[in-house]
Design brief:
Blueprint: E1 8-11, H1 17-26, H2 33-42, E2 49-55, E3 58-69, E4 76-85, H3 94-108, E5 111-116, H4 123-131
Parallel strand pairs: 4-5
Antiparallel strand pairs: 1-2, 2-3, 3-4
Helix pairs in contact: 1-2
């Protein structure tokens, strides 16, 4: 990454599909640009969102967040479904900025909480979330393959 160009955060666009696919694939979740383009379209409902971080006009990370109503209360909750920062761009604040974008998105849509899942095999992610105020062990996360 060169020092030229602009940096920042913005909503993801279809033109970002190849970069996002590359980031996901590098993390062990193979995806192609057409897969990501379809996913971006599905997240275009106004509640869900995908944001990218850029450095030197290149996508170096992204976050996907989904907002849903809570049945037991009259509010909403948001869930971060994916957060990936390019390995060469880590430890530069992009993850924190992307989480901030997800939180702002959730707050603007009336969410009472935002949650994220961090696998034990990703201690750096867990450290990022805890340093940003996320509480580990609030609930047990269980899942079943269908």
């Amino acid at each position: 990454m060169s020092g030229r160009g602009s940096s920042g955060l913005r909503p993801a666009e279809e033109a970002d599909a190849a970069a996002i696919a590359g980031l996901l694939t590098a993390e062990g979740y193979p995806a192609g640009p057409s897969d990501i383009a379809r996913r971006l379209a599905a997240f275009g409902d106004g509640l869900s969102g995908v944001f990218v971080a850029t450095a030197s006009d290149e996508v170096v990370g992204f976050v996907a967040v989904h907002v849903m109503p809570r049945f037991e209360h009259g509010d909403r909750i948001a869930r971060v479904l994916a957060l990936v920062v390019d390995e060469d761009a880590r430890e530069r604040g992009f993850g924190r900025e992307l989480m901030g974008a997800a939180e702002a998105h959730a707050r603007d849509r009336g969410c009472a909480f935002i949650e994220v899942t961090a696998g034990r095999h990703r201690p750096g992610a867990l450290q990022l979330y805890e340093s940003a105020g996320y509480e580990a062990g609030v609930v047990a996360y269980l899942r079943k393959r269908l």
